[in-house]
Amino acid sequence: MNARPLVILAHGTRAPGARPVLERVSAQVAALLPGVVVRHGYVEFQAPTARQAFSGLHDPVVVPFFLGGGYHVLHDLPGLLAEHGSGTATRHLGPEPAIVKVVADRLRWAAAGHGHGTAGLDGVVLAGSGSFRRRPVRETEQAAALLSQELGLPVRPAYLAKTSPAAHEAVASWRQEGARTIAVAPYLLAEGKFSRALHRSEAGFVAAPIGAHPAVARIVARRYREAVDSQLDSRLGSGVDFELGGEARGPADRHVVDCIPSS
Fold first, then answer.
1. How far apart are the first and last CA of the chain?
2. What is the value of pTM for the model shown?
3. How much is the pLDDT for 192?
């Protein structure tokens, strides 16, 4: 029996010079899943497109390379799978404690590069992409709480679009309260328009995005294994299952439930 193929789908960016994070993560995942065909693609702006990534594959497991369960996860990916005719979409990547530990590490490295440790910070702004939907905003808030526990510092969530407060507003508000040394930790997987905008926030320094960290690859591989194991156990799939001729969803599937906003 051949292993089900894996497709990792990200948003994509038009920002020139953005590092190829998804390609590197895909290579790391392929090393973790010997014998599995691993492809990657983008919902928009970059190639290979999602349709190109799906081409010739039957019943792929699709891992959304997104930190939050926003519009692209809830609408674009299911639509692309329905168009393809078969496949299972797993849960997205965040807010996992392992992801937050990477955010903390990026912040520590940035602080060391500025000649001090994180202990000298008055606070940290965790900057997520933002969404009109409450679910991904809550997930960023959860990640901020986890980061605060990891660092032992106050951490406030902020956003780069669609949601308040904006990252620069959060930094300015903290300064008005008397804080002097504030850092920004991007809650972003890759460089792009959003990460570059953070450098205009007037924070003491801005850490690097999460990037192609081995912890990210391990989470993607785990999502794949959970999907395959769930299908073997129940034959209902582990996410949103689409077969030719219509749409079918496993009624008790935790990945579907996890991706549906409560408001």
1. 41
2. 0.84
3. 75
